[in-house]
Design goal:
There is one protein chain. Helix content is 31%, strand content 23%. The C terminus is likely disordered. It starts with a strand and ends with a helix. By secondary structure, the chain is an alpha/beta fold. The chain folds into two domains: 152 residues, VC0802-like (2-Layer Sandwich), CATH 3.30.2130.30; 200 residues, Rossmann fold (3-Layer(aba) Sandwich). It has eleven helices and 14 strands. A seven-stranded mixed beta sheet has the order 2-3-1-4-7-6-5. The protein has a seven-stranded mixed beta sheet with strand order 10-9-8-11-12-14-13, covered by helices on one side.
Amino acid sequence: MRIYELIAPCHFGLEAVLKKEIYELGYEITKVEDGRVTFEGDEEAICRANVFLRTAERVLLKMGQFHAETFEELFQGIKGIPWEEYIPADGKFWVAKASSIKSKLFSPSDIQSIVKKAMVERMKMHYGKQWFPEDGASYPLRLFLMKDEVTVAIDTSGESLHKRGYRILSGKAPITETLAAALVMLTPWKKDRILVDPFCGSGTFLIEAAMMAANMAPGMERSFISEGWTNFIEKKLWEDVVEEARELVDLDISVDIQGYDVDGDIVKVARGNARRAGVEHLIHFQQRPVSGLHHPKKYGFLICNPPYGERMEDKEGLPALYGELGEALRRLDSWSAFVITAYEDAERYIGRKADKNRKIYNGMMKTYYYQFLGPKPPKRPRGQGAQDKAE
């Protein structure tokens, strides 16, 4: 099989999480940039990355990189790429997105037009045609221009990888599945410890955590645009990768994952999402305000995306809301809490300075991931774990 360079975009600030995921899949990383991790892999890697990666936004097949300050240089650079090795004569190809930062070429529509013309010229030379029907498989392109360096890639995913297929309805300020997975992975939580979200909304944090606990690949139940690329990715590769993913699933696990929300209708939405994800039996949802949060278990984990006023009609209720969250954390004094919010006064009203604070961009919005760390649980006596399993 041929080795390709693959680019996996992710949320800014979460590159290290994605890097670890790619390493664990067994692939060599060649470059880490803001919001992107580049790695090497074959055709099977394209399939496995799409099916297994939890924190990548999509998987791109890198086609080339060159310097261009003029549209002529852009045209010649694109024309020099062997598109015929990837796109058949009936393939549908277009620039789905072009972004430009600190580059002389900055008009997306002009860039898209020039790239399409250059690709057609190259295809004409190879296929000996003057017109292409474009009624076959789809090959959407993505271009990044950074300081006049052009990176060209074909999108192998199609719809963004955050669209797992389970979330049909969501709350007012939903957090994407990929971001939720990354934030859970940034915590020390393991499936033998309790996990609670007191502002569960559509249940994304908890569903992603339950899928991790059950070893469910996030892309197992959805399709990808490159499944139609039978000219160089065999259909059997996709079938084998999905079969691999299904064999790894373990739904017979015992976990304690709980979600609460003050809105009963939203709780019903969360249950429905969990049911579609196949993890409804692993999560307990309940209508309950944050003021009612208490739990007898020690050394648990709390993770949440509380309201922060951006989409609320009235910000006046935020101090009291964050104050209630702070009170709950004081009751759960052996727990660790992880809170993502854009509310600047979060620490003030929670009543405690975070032990760690990570800046993360949720789309274009700057948010903070506050980490309030509780004490570590005492170590089990040697042999206790084996004894528990035997019982």
